[in-house]
Amino acid sequence: SDDWMGRWARFVRASGLDVVAAQNLAGQGLMPSHGDDNRDYWAPSAQQICASVRRLADEAPAAQAIAISGAGSRTLSLIGALEGETERPIFGSDTALYRALAIAAGVRLKPGILGAITNA
Q1: Could you tell me the residue ranges of all domains in the chain?
Q2: What is the per-residue pLDDT for 50?
Q3: CATH match of 2-116 with 3.40.50.1860
Q4: Backbone angles phi, psi at 113, to 5 degrees
Q5: Residues 49, 44: Cα–Cα separation, whole Å
Q6: Can you give the chain as a three-state secondary structure string?
Q7: Fewest Cβ atoms closer than 10 Å to its Cβ: which of 4, 56, 118, 120?
Q8: For the residues 28-51, what does the mean pLDDT come to?
Q9: CA–CA distances in Å: residue 103 to residues 45, 94, 100
Q10: What is the pLDDT of residue 82?
Q11: DSSP β-ladder status, 90-92 and 66-68
């Protein structure tokens, strides 16, 4: 929702980062407005996620990275291709969680396995 997106942008700004653009799939016209009973909204397809990232990259060329939030957005298999296509890091909620879990468990991840987030 626009309200959630605004709260997310304020949080990120308060963390010291600039938010160049904040968009959602419904606002981009990639899916209809949602209701709580619409599972498609909470679990977007790979095609919708990729189209959204491409559109955001085109509309916000100054963005140094792209964040994909939402627990239902599965990005693990998409990160490498999207980073190559947009030439910037892509941080998905799920991949960030996988990285945090690996760190907490003391598991060393292979560089690049989660995209740029594991290259640092």
Answers
A1: 2-116
A2: 94
A3: yes
A4: -60, -30
A5: 7
A6: CHHHHHHHHHHHHHCCCCCCCCCCCCCCCCCCCCCCCCHHHHCCCHHHHHHHHHHHHHHCCCCCCEEECCCCCCCCCCHHHHHHHHCCCEEEHHHHHHHHHHHHHCCCCCCCEEEECCCC
A7: 120
A8: 75
A9: 28, 14, 5
A10: 95
A11: parallel
